[in-house]
Amino acid sequence: MCSTCGCAEGNLYIEGDEHRPHSAFRSAPFSPAPRPAAALTGITFAPQRSDAGDLHYGHGEAGTHAPGISQRQMLEVEINVLDKNNQLAARNRARFAAREQLVLNLVSSPGSGKTTLLTETLKRLNEHVSCAVIEGDQQTVNDAARIRETGTPAIQVNTGKGCHLDAQMIADAAPRLPLADNGILFIENVGNLVCPASFDLGERHKVAVLSVTEGEDKPLKYPHMFAAASVMLLNKVDLLPYLNFDVDKCLAYAREVNPDIEILLVSATRGDGMDAWLNWLENERCA
Q1: DSSP of the chain
Q2: What class has domain 100-286?
Q3: Are residues 219 and 246 in contact, defined by beta-carbon separation less than 8 angstroms?
Q4: For the CA atoms of 256, 258, 263, 266, what is the dihedral angle to 10 degrees?
Q5: CB neighbours (10 Å) of residue 43?
Q6: Which residues, other chains included, contact 228 with Cβ-Cβ below 8 Å and sequence gap of 6+?
Q7: Residue 161: what pLDDT?
Q8: Quick one: CA torsion of 164, 271, 253, 224, rounded to 10 degrees?
Q9: Would you state the pLDDT for residue 36?
Q10: Reported pTM
Q11: Domain coordinates of the chain in residue numbers?
Q12: 254 vs 207, 224, 265, 271, 282, CA distance in Å?
């Protein structure tokens, strides 16, 4: 995971930091809690095997590989990192719950259409629901600028070399957004189907966005993400006539990984499924 690949060593930038160099929340004390390894690893997926000499580095108690580091060392690092993150996420969740705010963590690979789907969603919601957005990318403020063009307050979080958002970043960014009680906070995570699966931000749900241009076997290739998601939005369905994409297989693969996942077929550009998506949002907001 990224605690061993070094992705967290980049420069973090949150819009407004030049005026607020320190967050009061960042100085909150942390005490690691004892935690069994089994609680961390969660679901175990057996790699598919063949006789072609394929290499599989997902074995062992850490479920990953790094040169010169033992499985036990990697597991201890992962436990420490995620334990601290989970404590911060619990604080975030309590703050959001106190204001009855619906918080969603949008996750996907790059190019799935997350930002376009989000802008079209906001255009439909802004008239009657208070919304705000935290945008996660390694660099640029491009996506936050796109969101603000819809009239929605947004703040950009640049993770530098980091490949995901974490609970501390959300704790720093969320208070800067003017979100009303009972509103919806959308967190658009860094485009990555690996590391964001492990990091709780304090959201109520992870929403996985999968584009039909990516191939129907993505849920099997990246099972931890789809296992962690409550909802999968199969996006860009307007392109289906031009692609060799088996929708039924894709849905079956997603449910093989996560039998409880809710699936909606949508097209941000043509509008397919947007009413069903908005109804889901409203039901969750009022829950």
Answers
A1: -HHHHTGGGS--EETTTTT----TGGG----PPP--HHHHH-S--PPP--SS-------STTSS--TT--HHHHHHHHHHHHHHHHHHHHHHHHHHHHTT-EEEEEE--TTSSHHHHHHHHHHHHTTTS-EEEEEEESS-SHHHHHHHTTT--EEEEE-TT--S--HHHHHHHGGGS-PPTT-EEEEE--S-SSGGGT---S-SEEEEEEEGGG-TTHHHHSHHHHHH-SEEEEE-GGGGGGS---HHHHHHHHHHH-TT-EEEE--TTT-TTHHHHHHHHHHHHH-
A2: alpha beta
A3: no
A4: -80
A5: 10
A6: 197, 198, 206
A7: 82
A8: 10
A9: 39
A10: 0.80
A11: 100-286
A12: 13, 11, 13, 23, 24
- Token pair listed for 280: 């889901």
For CA atoms 158, 160, 162, 167, give the dihedral sign: negative
Residue 151: C-alpha distances to residues 44, 124, 127, 134 (Å):
43, 11, 10, 14
Cβ atoms within 10 Å, residue 2: 22
Query: Please, are residues 281 and 249 in contact by the beta-carbon 8 Å criterion?
Result: no
Phi, psi of 33 (to 5 degrees): -100, 140
AA identity, residue 227: A
Per-residue pLDDT tens digits of the chain, which is 287 residues long: 454 345 655 567 677 765 554 443 333 443 434 433 333 335 555 556 666 655 554 555 545 555 555 666 655 655 666 789 999 999 999 999 999 999 999 999 999 999 999 999 999 999 999 999 999 988 888 999 999 999 999 999 998 888 899 999 999 999 999 999 999 999 999 999 998 999 999 999 999 999 999 999 999 999 999 999 999 999 999 999 999 999 999 999 999 999 999 999 999 999 999 999 999 999 999 98
- For residues 144 and 159, what is the distance between their CA atoms, to the nearest angstrom? 14
